[in-house]
Amino acid sequence: MTEDFVLHQQLAADTVWIADWPLSSLLLMRAERRWPWLILVPRRPGKREIADLERADRALLIEEIADATRLLQVLYDPLKVNVAALGNSVSQLHVHVIARTRDDPVWPKPIWGQLPAEPYEASELETRLAQLRHALTAGRHKG
Amino acid sequence: MTEDFVLHQQLAADTVWIADWPLSSLLLMRAERRWPWLILVPRRPGKREIADLERADRALLIEEIADATRLLQVLYDPLKVNVAALGNSVSQLHVHVIARTRDDPVWPKPIWGQLPAEPYEASELETRLAQLRHALTAGRHKG
Asked: Predicted ipTM?
């Protein structure tokens, strides 16, 4: 029997769903407003490390990382996009794709361990989601 | 004329060369002894983001990330391997692959921004390099 994929409850609480790509669900981090912050979660149950995926899924994952990067680039003109698969607290495999922008309060440091989280306000979150969904619909993230 | 690949001087100063894989040079971070910390640097000039690579090189890169992960797993039995392409300070594309072990002083936090760097002592560095080179020669990192 195949185990079904279920999004980890902490990821479900911290994010808003944007789209399902071939391998991964694309999510927006709602718990932090200062960086446009996407999370890719491969819809494969029981995976913790990138090395746990099948080879074909790994090839999909890095294409989706590239697509998420380009999505942030066309929308937010970031100084750099930070990509990270950490998973120390939430063991379900997920990849952070974060735009580091010109008004970034901790640039050039990594964002972790610098500042307490600052969630979006409701209207701001709607604006962010509308930007992302519009760019996706227009296909602006495809390489 | 093709631009030649040259390792960024900060990466050259902070690391020791271990091996050249098909796409990337595999390096050991010498500037931090508390985590077995590998760095993959694709030998492609002028790349900053994963999205800047050719698609075929991206497929190689994620296989090399998986191989580096397995190398750390067979040697150090980590709680988790952290993978990150940040590049805020050193713009040359490079990927951190870091073993978070049981005696990790900041677990489960990300390692960045927590503690001042603590470089290896010479004998300890030699031991680490010997472990890595021996495991590579034995092919223990191949999935």
From this structure: 0.96
